[in-house]
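Continuing the batch. This is chain 6 of the set; chains 1 through 5 are on the previous pages. Same settings as before, nothing changed between runs. Recording input and output for traceability.
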Amino acid sequence: MLDCAIIGGGPAGLTAGLYTTRGGLAKVSMFEKGMPGGQITQSSEIENYPGVTGDISGMDLMMPWPEQCQKFGLKHEMAEVVAITKNAEGNFIITLGDGTTHEALSVIVCTGSTPRRAGFIGEDEFFGRGVSTCATCDGFFYKGKEVVVIGGGDTALEEALHLAKICSKVYLVHRRDTFRAAPNTIKRVEATDNIELVLNASPQEVYGDKMGVTGITVVMNDGGTRNIEVPGVFTFVGNDVNNGVLKQEDGSFLCDVNAQGEVIVTLSMATSTPGLYAAGDIRIEAPKQVVSAAGDGAVAALQVIAYVDEKLHV
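Output for chain 6:
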């Protein structure tokens, strides 16, 4: 029997693992099918994490976190969790992809979110062949070439700045004439000579050949169209929460979620189901920042320590 099962190995999950183990829980396992670190490992540059004053990538930032957690006894199970249910005794059953199960007194769900597709024609067909959601992963392939970035939030603008250092030109396509990004980021984009703003425009169709993408057509808000010939298109239009592990056989969720599928939590990261906590991008009103996810993980862990202590000493 685990004291706590942590589902997901990003900043929230790793911090939850650090705090639960350092706080005295003896049996804590973090289930993460890949290498720990989360989506932030794909970011090219981190400027807003407290204490980090030099140039650092998301991968560099997260590199020491797993070792620190494991020093205090956190166990990393490299396995995919497919379902979380509750048994008659009130304990949680963690079902893995291979059919095996683990029983736990408490669970912290930190499964995060997944980049959302923009929905234009050809996006799925050319995904991985010119269409990407990771500038850090794929930007180098377009060194000295022109690319398109789609989106108007912090991530889109930050990745456009990263690509501008590699590519000869970046077309930033956004459906409005204002951005949802931090003011300083907007100023940097506007001051970058090889970033062209294509505003009041939406992607219509990406096209190409057997070799990959060769261009994209965008529709302007006034009804006109524009053809931009590029070999690469990067989309950053939001995320979908990864709440699949909470779905039950009857289609309901193990705890309350909102209309967008985000887990409803209290300020203590507690869900509507006793012993079940959610941290990071999966919860309602998540800022989607590393420091916030880490804070969520710490808060959830402290609550779990108290919850498990009460369960064991009833």
